[in-house]
Amino acid sequence: MSDKATLRIKYKKLREHFSEKAVEEMSLQIANQALKLPIWDKTYYHIFLTISEKKEVNTEYLLHILQGKDKSIVISKAEFSTGEMQHFLLQENTEIRTSKYGIPEPVAGLTISPEIIDVVFVPLLAYDQLGHRVGYGKGFYDRFLAKCTPNTVFVGLSFFDAELAISFESNDIPLDFCVTPKTSIDFRK
């Protein structure tokens, strides 16, 4: 069983070696794989805005799919002083600025409660065969996912295959799906 700290180091290093072109190609493949998931009949979709310096999955492709399907898109702003995230409806006039932590975030807007969000696309560094995930370690997403309803669908996005097993705490919330460039995994079975 792998511990989270070791996996954070491993996957940050692996992502560093990706070219910009590779990140774009794999991100497009992930968006295409996501189209096969049974999630597209929902209304409110939470998506993270990519921190390109960290070579995260580029969510622009998924954003275009959501806009094309006329879905309500929710984005967040991290409040580092409280460890919480505020959620906003993405609208045409939503101003996005990069925070001092390098995170693209909405400046302001119409706030959305986590309880009405149907699907959350979750950023991660690693995940295992049971859907446990490793994030950056600040707990923002753990606290956010805990406020969603039991019916909310959590979809991880990853360039990599699953680890065998990751050590996890009782308050860690597992994913329902994880999408990679080659496949999507359903952890609900």
From TrEMBL:
EC number: 6.3.3.2
SUPFAM superfamilies with a match to the protein in the record: NagB/RpiA/CoA transferase-like
Cofactor: Mg(2+)
Record-level GO BP terms: folic acid-containing compound biosynthetic process; tetrahydrofolate interconversion
Catalysed reactions, as listed in the record: (6S)-5-formyl-5,6,7,8-tetrahydrofolate + ATP = (6R)-5,10-methenyltetrahydrofolate + ADP + phosphate
Positions annotated to bind substrate: I51, E56
Name of protein: 5-formyltetrahydrofolate cyclo-ligase
Organism: Aequorivita vitellina
Organismal lineage: Bacteria, Pseudomonadati, Bacteroidota, Flavobacteriia, Flavobacteriales
